[in-house]
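The instructor's notes for this session suggest beginning with a concrete chain rather than abstract definitions. Hand out the sequence below and ask the class to guess, before any prediction is shown, which regions might be ordered.
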Amino acid sequence: MAATIEGLLTEISSSEDPVEGLRNLRTAVLATPVNNLRDLGSGCHLEVIFSLLNTTDKEQIEICVEVLGRILQAQDPALLFHARKTELESGLQHPDDTVKILTLTQMGRVVENGEALTQMLACEDILKKVIQCIAAEKISVAKEAICALAKLAQCKPGLDALFRTHLKDLKDVMATSDIIRYRVYELVVEVCSVSAVSLGYCASTGFISQLLEEMTGDDILVRATAIETVTHLAESQHGRQYLSQQGTMEHISNMIIAAESDPFSSLYLPGLVKFFGKLALLEGPQQVCECYPVFLSTVFAMLLGHDPTHTTVALDTVGALGATVEGKQVLHKTGEKFKAVLKRMSQIAKDGPNDLRVRCIDAIALLLSLPVSGEDQTEDLCVLTESWFCSLSSQPMEMFRNISTQPFPELHCCALRVFTAIASQTWGQKMMVQTPGFLEWIVDRSSGVTKEGKDAKFKLVGALVSSPTTQELLGSQNALRLRTYLREGPYYVSAVATVSTEGAD
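After discussion, reveal the predicted structure:
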């Protein structure tokens, strides 16, 4: 096959209309295992394809990019950079975005190879052009450039090159526009996540302090974007430590308090709540809610309000907090305040817009979930989840079964997730037994017609079968039906015998 490809390359090099030859070449290249394409990267084999990129013919460029993408993937990065440095530099300036993306993908491979990286760092113009691609009009080009530069910054020589040698180039790109500035921030935050050393490099450039200042800028949309970017910075332990040293947590807490008197706060308040929500998941709900009490009170206020955006964020936050045992305890300590929240969640689950209903019911499932066994499923916790479930409705089992029978597959699935959450708890199993027709409905395969519905029902059955109390509480006959359902799998269809009669229509 390699000989065939070489023959096609020779034919294409002498053809006045190379597109047909390129089509045949693409077929041959795609049919050849990648490892067998390694030798094609040497010598002059590929020069013809690179030269054919210099055209305005879209199909010709598309095929060349597809062929080169597969062949170059087989090449050793160090040999590739040494042999194709000129072509790579040209590709970074090509007017067609697909060529830029192809080139940046290969640059990502180059910077991950020690030998190739050393060669590339000696070519400052190439790295400068990669940085300039952050400002590309097409976001996919910028994303590929950011990816390659983030890989470059995985080592000290790369950090030195990016934040010292080419610091001016980065700052020049930042000055292009608000959008481009935040692409650079995206790169900076990604680099910061690697290690405390990486964060130190970024901090020394002034990028992070500049980002933090933008959280309180006059432009509300820029402020919202800055808060979102800072939230990503908080995902690493050293990132949170840095933010704590800068007083960022207290600052964001004060911003939430001040938001009450700001008529434009609806644009950035969700971002502030998401920041503390992320912090609570990483540092623990109790610590965060005790240190910054305005966080939880604001979440409750957002959920009790009527702004759909605020409600969505509040539902997701309550669900994420309540998914953990510690979070359940924090919510429980708020007493009547959380009871009001549960009442509001019940209303949304029954009567809200479908997208909010799904978010709400999924949050309820998280609130009710407990580990199947072990020290976390204590009697006190089971009493707590049962009280929450019962506070949602005078007949909560019927409420969620009714939701599951409505003609919306996403509602059917999230209602099943609520039943799955209580299936491992004894009170949940008792309610299932006491609800007429419920266990028969579980094993009725006609009640869920979509793949997602069948999968959700199967998880519910699996949760019941794996519970050590199922046999005792549900009875041996129901337990047998559930085990049979589980053994047959989620997509089982029982065979139906039919008899045809001669002469029948």
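Then share the key points. The longest helix spans residues 58-73. The mean pLDDT is 92.
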